[in-house]
Write a structure and sequence with these properties.
Blueprint lengths: L1 E5 L6 H12 L3 E3 H11 L2 H11 L6 H12 L8 E4 L5 H13 L6 E6 L2 H9 L1 E4 L6 E3 L18 E2 L6 H23 L4 E5 L4 H11 L5
Helix pairs in contact: 1-8, 2-3, 2-4, 3-4, 4-5, 6-7
Amino acid sequence: MRIVLVGPPGAGKGTQAAYLAKNLAIPHISTGDLFRANISQGTPLGVEAKSYMDAGNLVPDSVTIGMAEDRMDQADAAEGFLLDGFPRNLGQAEALDGYLQGKGLKLDAVLDLEVPEDEVVKRIAGRRICRKDSSHVFHVEYNQPKTEGVCDACGGELYQREDDREDTVRKRLEVYHSETEPIIDYYKAQGLVVTIPALGKVAEVTQRAMNALGRGE
């Protein structure tokens, strides 16, 4: 299957993408992973992306599209993939269509993870990260540490990242609404969009998505 996963920041795309890709036995292709891999390996696209990033500029769509196409050309993606974070806007969506059509392929579904905006803000603004080990993540409501402000795992100080502040989250949502949401209408016109309510336990959301794809138990 060839699937695109969309949804606002804080919808749980990364978590759901990992579970769905494993259940469907297809690679999870994340924009963040693509950038990290290309930059660390020093590929031509990685070098170009880094030059824009180092200058504080946005990486052009052409670079992101090139990275995504290179990844989709790899052998493990021959039978399908799950795209997470790409396409991010209409230009990228049209480029993806062109790439697939050129190979005689098409998308099977676009999964839209639906979360109320207030819940998105609560999820992200409530996160607290350990200063010693950023993989230790807590939440003021959903995953409270035993001692406020202290990491259960290593005793490090818990803090709120600048990106997780409520005003920053609301700005990120504005960007999502203006840039990414239009691709949902674009794919709805193709009859590809399946809306998945993304509230509840991770396993429940995964099961809803698998059921919507006709792969439920």
